[in-house]
Amino acid sequence: MSETQNSTSQKAMDEDKKAASQTMPNTQDKNYEDELTQVALALVEDVINYAVKIVEEERNPLKNIKWMTHGEFTVEKGLKQIDEYFSDAPIVVSYVGDHQALVHRPGMVRFRENWQKNLTDAKYSFMESFPFLFNRV
């Protein structure tokens, strides 16, 4: 490499170092390190709080609503709040008799108490018919 090219390269490198030192903070500065540490700690705290929130929502998917006091209570407001509370929860209630293909769901088929009584009576009669299978204590 010629002397001129070498000095030109050196000048360019020196200018780059000078520009970098003007734009970059002095990492040896104690205040800079303290400030950087505080920003990092705040960021870590935010991430941890967000992670805790996500985990809590996974454990308790139902949102917590502000329930009214007994002085504010009316039937209409109570029904509205109950609907609001259960709007997030897909709750399925069904009744299936012993090995029946028909599934009884509230609002779809009216559940009759005598169905349960008939089923219990039929089981009891069956058990009495075969005492050697079902020993009573």
Strand content: under 5%
Question: Radius of gyration over alpha carbons?
Answer: 37 Å
Distance between the termini: 107 Å
- Helix count, DSSP H or I runs of 4 or more residues: 4
Question: What string gives the helices and strands in order?
Answer: HHHEEH
General form: elongated
Helical fraction: 55-70%
Q: How would a textbook summarize the main sheet?
A: 2 strands, antiparallel
Runs with pLDDT <50, length 5+? none
Question: What structural class do helix, strand and pairing data support?
Answer: mainly alpha
Strand order of the largest sheet: 1-2
**Average pLDDT figure:** 76
Please give the number of β-strands: 2
Biased composition (Polar residues): 1-11, 20-29
Organism: Pan paniscus (Pygmy chimpanzee)
Region (Disordered): 1-32
GO molecular function: protein kinase A regulatory subunit binding
Verbal overview:
- The chain is mostly helical and about 140 residues long.
- The protein has a domain at about 30-60.
- It has four helices and two strands.
- The chain has helices at about 5-25, 30-60, 75-85, 115-130, and strands spanning about 95, 105.
- The chain has a two-stranded antiparallel ribbon with strand order 1-2.
- A hairpin with a 6-residue loop joins strand 1 and strand 2.
- The longest helix is centred in the first third of the chain and has 30 residues, at about 30-60.
- It starts with a helix and ends in an 8-residue tail after the last helix.
- The mean pLDDT is about 75.
- GO terms for molecular function: protein kinase A regulatory subunit binding.
- This is A-kinase anchoring protein 14.
- InterPro entries: AKAP, AKAP_28.
